[in-house]
Design a protein that fits this description.
Helices cover 39% and strands 24% of the residues. By secondary structure, the protein is α/β, with parallel strands linked by helices. It has three domains: 81 residues, Winged helix-like DNA-binding domain superfamily/Winged helix DNA-binding domain (Arc Repressor Mutant, subunit A, Orthogonal Bundle), CATH 1.10.10.10; 93 residues, D-Maltodextrin-Binding Protein, domain 2 (3-Layer(aba) Sandwich), CATH 3.40.190.10; 100 residues, D-Maltodextrin-Binding Protein, domain 2 (3-Layer(aba) Sandwich), CATH 3.40.190. Helix 1 packs across helix 2 and helix 1 packs across helix 3. 32% of the residues are buried.
């Protein structure tokens, strides 16, 4: 039977990119890490890593074996964690990812409180692309916003939010204010680079009445924070999530353009690897986060 310590050494080498950094991570000597890899390759009868003077690279077989090892290590950690549940404090590392904006505005404050409640748990947050791979990033949980596509991972809905059409009062003094969804096309929009094609708006008073609208404008940005900055600089109208602009709306820096029409409600999901045992740190954080979402999409400070 393969020694799990050797799998751990192999994964550490791949994650760190060097024998030296892997040894530092594991608290071993570089020679011990090298020996563990050699024994693992000998037991398997295959080369997992090619070594050059400048870098390490996974072989084709090694790439697949790495993904399998990550899964095995997760399962082993979760099994031990499950056995200890209710009898020990949360320990180890809780590694999360989400968009930079949602992380900065809500997840990090939530993680700070969760970390204070579990002082033996180390917490890591990484801002990543919306569909960052959990396995390659070794993430325990990804918080994803919007509509989920098909995935091999497990997911649970923890809240929801609305996308609002807003603009600064100064910008709206220069425009004829829209009275219908179709008239939204007359505005100059600050466009998010991730939004393409027509959007379907529903009338609040009659949700079955829907309108397809295509928005365009002179300004474009690749993040919600950048779109918000353009909108606050009176450059145009913008579509922004309610959790991001609650303070600007309250202060009157932005106003909702057409409150009688709305876009489909969006979900907030915790996505995590599909393992037989869900680690206690993952279960407890998801429960904590779900309890913290008050009202939809807004975490208390």
């Amino acid at each position: 039977m393969i020694n799990l310590n050797r799998l751990e050494c192999f994964v550490a080498i791949v994650d760190s990119g060097s024998f030296t950094r892997a040894a530092e991570t594991l608290g071993l000597t570089k020679a011990m890490v090298s020996v563990q890899l050699k024994k693992l390759e000998a037991e398997l009868g295959i080369a997992l890593i090619t070594r050059t003077t400048r870098r390490l690279a996974l072989t084709e077989v090694g790439e697949q074996f790495y993904q399998d090892c990550v899964r095995v290590m997760r399962e082993a950690e979760a099994a031990v964690d499950s056995a200890r549940a209710g009898h020990a404090a949360l320990t180890g590392v809780l590694r999360l990812t989400s968009t930079a904006e949602y992380g900065a505005h809500f997840l990090i404050p939530a993680l700070a409180v969760f970390g204070q409640q579990h002082e033996q748990l180390r917490i890591e947050f990484a801002a990543a692309a919306p569909l960052a791979d959990l396995a390659s990033g070794r993430f325990d949980v990804a918080i994803r916003l919007g509509q989920l596509g098909d995935s091999a991972h497990r997911a649970t809905r923890i809240g929801s939010f609305r996308v609002l059409a807003v603009a600064s009062p100064t910008y709206l003094t220069r425009q004829t204010r829209p009275r219908s969804a179709e008239e939204l096309e007359s505005l100059d929009w600050v466009v998010h680079a991730g939004f393409h094609g027509a959007l379907v708006w529903s009338e609040v008073a009659a949700p079955s009445r829907q309108h397809s609208v295509t928005l365009g404008g002179r300004h474009q940005a690749d993040s919600a924070d950048a779109v918000l900055s353009f909108a606050l600089a009176h450059c145009g109208a913008a579509l922004l999530p309610d959790w991001l602009i609650q303070h600007q709306l309250a202060r009157g820096e932005l106003v909702e353009i057409l409150p009688g029409y709305g876009l489909p409600e969006q979900g907030i999901y915790a996505v995590f690897p599909h393992t037989h045992h869900v680690p206690a740190k993952v279960r407890q954080f998801i429960d904590f986060l779900r309890a913290s979402v008050t009202p939809p999409g807004v975490l208390p400070h």
